[in-house]
Amino acid sequence: MKTKTFFNLSRLKHLLFLAYLAAAVITVKLIDIQFISHNRYTQAAEQNRTQILYQTAPRGRILASGGELLAGNQPSFSLYYLPAFEESSQDYMESLSSDMSDYLGEDKTKLLKLLKKANKSGKAIALAQNISPKKAFSFAELQSYYSGLYLLEDTKRYYPSGAFAAHLLGYMGTMDNKFWALRDDSLDYRLNSKIGKSGIEKRYETELKGRDGGLLLEVDYMGRVKKKIKDNQWRAGADIYTTLNYRVQKAAEDGIKNSITGRGAAVVLNPKNGAVLAMVSAPDFDPNIFMPFSDEETKQKKSIPEYNLAIQGLYPPASTFKTITAIAGLETGRLNPEEETTCNGKVYMNGREFKCWKTHGHHIDFWEGMAQSCDVYFYELGGKVGASHIEKIQRKFRFGRQTGIDLPGEKSGNIYGPSKRARNKTYWFGGDTLNLSIGQGELLLTPIQMAVFAATLANKGDIWRPYYIEKIQSPNGKTLFESKPELLQKVELKPGVFDIISKALKGVVDNATGRAARVNGIEVHGKTGTAQNPHGDDHGWFMAFANRPGEEPDLALAVFVEFGKGGAGAAAPIARNIIKAYYGVK
Known about the structure:
This protein has 20 helices and 23 strands. It is an alpha+beta fold. About 40% of the residues are buried.
């Protein structure tokens, strides 16, 4: 009979291995706690015995290119009650609640219950938040009588010029659940944090957001306040310098707002690099309405005109497009600027009558045809050139494509021509060519596309990506980012074509439909446009570029007045004031 073995050597080895493994895990964990993650655990331990009354950091400023403040900060205050700093006697709380009732406009009994609850829990409570400086002065006086009160200075976003450049700057609002889930953990957001909701405020949220500070309080294991430890200093966000020219932006805004309808858009560019000097969309809004003080009565608006006409409004370019038809004629050799023709006031195509705005006949050449914006001249030119060649020139100038400006929601417009019809398996008719020749039909552009087109004519072929940020600078003056102009495309045309177009556009302003845009001492080259509108009055266009005599053009613009009835009367005068503002002409 065999004797039972009371221990198995193999089993013992397994037990020893498990013991060593457990010891190794414990050792690694101890090393992690003591050395590797020491700071993290220390911070967590500190947080278990501290409470922070947060102080919102000043948001980075947004400025125009000349340093003018477009978005800044205002002081805002929060009033806290710290029960550990004062005896919780009944007389003290009744006196405090009575005085606070007068200042806050709250019921005394309600405040007394709140103070008693705070004393019982020992936790700091907010009695009032987002207080205006005017109201805070009264609370500061009250604070001198009650040491348990603590007035904490905060900041609130402020736009000193109200609706100035509102669609570009954007506005702010309270963080929503979607943003909270996607937030940057390196930035100290809280559920009630204010964040950018549109425009620059949203696009550059990370750069503009500062590091919050606050009052650090020591609490016991039950969360009751024991004493104040220190004030943590906030750190301001980075400043953003835009390319906006303050005078030009103001002239553009005043012009659109005071136009016949008060509706429209204007975009002004530097044709040498694509910098946005002004961008206007009207109707606009005052972003201050989203950041009121809690003690002020404000009329809350349920909706604002967030639709940015400058980059999202799609309209037929009308007679401004005759410039493209002329370029197509020069490129194909089918346009002789000196050749004369007769306009009889109308033409017929497939039994349909196409009229000129000038109903009586006149004898004209190209220069007069462009200056007077004669439809019949361009109907005939379009027929000679052919729709395919006109469409080709559209594509050369990037019509039907986004300009690439760094703003959400930009529309690409709609190119118009026989190849697109062919892709859609529909026919192209002779009447379509006539409509295309004068910028009507299915062709659609945004105001910023029109401005880029004007800039490309000004610099003779360079298509720059529009940009509006000049640089981003830290609070200590260090440059964090600086924009570099980006050339998207070069338009190659036959020698002399850009010069002929420039001369023709100058004639429009000097002697004809664009005369309302003339500025003494400045060479202005422009083209008016009246876009047909089936929903009401026609829209008014004016696109132009300008320069001092003997110098290269350094300003290009597009002005659009919705329901303006015509470009000559509605849009050209606005362009004139923009040009005067840029060159400082009195």
